[in-house]
Amino acid sequence: MSSPIRVRAARVEDAAEMARVLVRSWQETYRGLMRDEVLDDPAFPDARERFWTAAISDERYRESRAAVAERDGEIIGVALAGPPDPPEPGWATHLYVLYVVAAEHGSGAGAALLDAVVDPHEAAALWVADPNPRAQAFYRKHGFVADGTVQVDDGVREIRMVRGRRTRATPE
Q1: Which domains are delineated in the chain?
Q2: Can you give the pTM of this predicted structure?
């Protein structure tokens, strides 16, 4: 039997491991949706480590919440939420990052991370790759619905999902 998952606030000393988890998760999730040159760029892990160091320690992110999920002392998932940038009427929180390594999908780590960075009672929004049926189903299970807004970021089509705000429903 495997040990339980523990979710806690992220610390600066976690940044390198958080970067490793994010890069691995992107490679597992976006292969075929995103260009291989992006996913396999040797500078990608260092760039993500710099991002996490800033997200945890920089004053610009003081209102953000970053968390990690661990099993047996190893980080297996990461999450980051904070005020929308730019500000958006209708919700106070934007979920910027939520990734769990594929081997831990279905373990409850994603739900625990979501709850750690987004209060279940606050209005929130996020962008999710489309197609990414597993992630979209996860967010629907947690009360998010597609609001009909679409963007393309780095060649990946994304849909916005929101919770706790009136939305215009879109067919799925």
Answers
A1: 5-163 (3.40.630.30)
A2: 0.90
